[in-house]
Amino acid sequence: MNLLSRIFVSLSVLGWAVLASAADVKHNYDLKNVLWHLSFSMDGGTIAGDVTNTLTLSENSPTVQLSCSELNITAVSVNGASATFSSANDVLTVDLPRPGKAGETLDVRTVYTGSPVNGFYFVPASRAFPAHTGMVYTQGEGEDNHYWIPTYDKPDDKATTECFVTVPPSWTAISNGKLMDVKTSPAGKIFHWKMDQPYSTYLISLVAGEYVKGGDSWHGIPVDYYVPPGLEAEGKVSFGNTSKMIDLYSKLTGVDYPYAKFAQEVVGDFMFGGMENVTCVTQTIRTLHALDSDPVSDSTGLVAHELAHQWFGDLITCRTWEHTWLNEGFATTLPVFLDRAWYGKDAFDMDRYGNFEGAIDSIGSRGRKDVPGAVGSVPTVNMGSPYNGGCSRNLMLMEKLGEPVFWKGIHNFLEKYKFQPATTDEFFDVMTKTSKVDLKEFEKQWFHSAATPSLTVSVDGSELHIAQLQPYYTLDLPVWILRPQGWVKKAIHVTGADSKLELGSLASMPLLVDPEVETLMELNYKIPYTPETVEKLYVRAPILAQRARIIASFFDGLPLAMRLNIGHKERNQAVLQMIARHMGQDGVDFLGELSRNPDKRVVNAAVIALGSLKPDTKILPVIQEIADHDPNEAVREHATQALLNWSTDSGLAEKVWKMHTFDDGYRRMALNWWADHSPEVARKYSLAILKNPDSEPLRVTAISVLGDVKEAPGEHSVYDALIAVAQETSYSARRTAISALAQLGNKAAIPILEPFTLHGPGGIRGTAAAAVAALSK
């Protein structure tokens, strides 16, 4: 997975960690259909809605309840008869005109208005960079749709939907399902969308704006993308391979893409990388990139992840968020197999290694101490990140069962629970029945534990020892010992604090544990390997991912000559990128060589690595040449950043300030340079940007810089500017401003920020709470 994709996945992980939850409602019904009409005022930031929730009672009841927050309810009716209602604590309680009976179907209609700051987002043209037109979008995960549409807002009840959305004459509205009709009215255009298959309500979506549609089809199903005017070419580069991905996923799972269309729409000021709304994925506008920046910038990972959700998360959905790995783990797994199909086994192996390492890092499990509690003792599903963590466990399950059986089980799971919610236990029940393998211990060990395994390998006399930190996993690990004639293959049963394997005369030979990198674990070697031995292990490593593990474990301790020898022989671009990050100051010359590599991803890694080191007179002309003339815009930007890192010349910052790039990266890096070297200049420029912004990425950078450079003596202009942004309805700029206010240290911000800890998107609430806590100290 490339750097850009990793950034987006990280954003998604952050989003998952701060998901909002709707208040519990009395769920005494089965939601059948949600029919909604909506119009909005872009200038006023208001909405007007009319929604009919069709539901079938599961018990006799005089009332029904819906999730509803911060909306003005003007009328409620049930089956056409006016009904009384009350709204409190995020719950709309409807008094039925007559007591309802179990099995009875009701149409509960709610008419409402509102000025939402959560769930429904207005993005003016000024915040839509690189677009020049405004847009609106909704964002429902975890349970935020009830801030703009009263409905049942938990993932465990699925319903069909139909909507009629009124937009300005030049706008397009995209929602779930099939486009049934577009009509004109005095108010504008009315888009009619209908979704015939049931799905969880957090996936109800609306994106509207001035969009240009592109795309193709798969088996007659439209595969569309929507981008603002002027960005059509960038949209094709980002989304043009989607139909090929649909084909692969359909074949992998044995379940054809099941919906009437697949669309992707880009929006500005989006809080995540992407959101898997069924049939209409919302993508950040940041995934669009300069046409000449591939493959350094690449949307493949983001598109592949959100597309995979159409099967995992949308077709089947976690019953409660505890089981969200069923959504996110599989959406991280399928792209690994896409990489294998498109780029080969080495890419698959490196993806698996990367997910293992990401799972360890995502829960702070690297370099950990003992964690109390036995393996399998956590009553709820707990694996840290549902992304890397879920994917890692899927890949280990595949190794345990064999790939054909694994995919047969996945197919059976999708077929049994399609259009339904599901749990971890239900998943394992299907996999057990399919494979005829008892998976109770596997589920218990890997899905109900507090930390990933942490092992240390050593040799004492003729014995191999593997020490393990608590909680103690039970693992059967291959051990390969390298003799001159080749590998001798053994295995060790790991359990408890210390496990042993008698090696006899092989004890003096170098060895690798888990040589084919098939187990999620932190693996440390306390074996005094010589540099020559490390090189032998590297050369004889059975798969590329083991070479990556050797680099991570041993490379920094090797003498320069040995690192150069390994680096000069390596040909794989992913491993060369790793080597670049581990070369250090004494490897400047080799990094210079890598900067001339034919693969731009390697060049980019070398340039970034050089930029983090001290300047070297031999390499300055090389980086200058790249900054001036490299054909890849992303590489040019990073080379320019390296020059700025090394420079104390304000003239260079002024020059960079006047340069143009697709993502406005040059002006952002110049502003950061001034923050480090000329705070007064940085403050002046940043305040001017906030008064008259022409690029949202630059505005967000200016806000962050103001938090760094603070006020001029006796002034309060920085505070005033940040407070103004903190009270916007923007997301990225507002969140950055709140953090900058915490850095600024002015306690006057506390009463202004405190309401934000209770009101607004989860990311805003969490950032505001952290800022208030910091300012209160």
How would you describe this structure to a colleague?
Helix 8 packs across helix 9 (424-435). An eight-stranded mixed β-sheet has the order 5-4-8-2-1-11-14-13, with no helix packed on it. It has a five-stranded mixed β-sheet with strand order 16-17-18-20-19, with helices on one face. The protein is built from 26 helices and 29 strands. The protein is globular and about 85 Å long. The chain is of the alpha+beta class and 777 residues long.
| Proportion in helices | 25-40%
| Overall spatial form | globular
Largest sheet, described in full? 8 strands, mixed
- Going across the major beta sheet, what is the strand order? 5-4-8-2-1-11-14-13
Structural class given helices, strands, pairing? alpha+beta
Mean pLDDT over the full residue set? 95
State the helix count: 26
What percentage of the residues does DSSP assign to strands (E)?
Answer: 15-25%
Termini separation: 41 Å
Low-pLDDT windows of residues:
1-18
Q: If you compute it from the alpha carbons, what radius of gyration comes out, rounded to the nearest whole angstrom?
A: 28 Å
Report the count of strand segments: 29
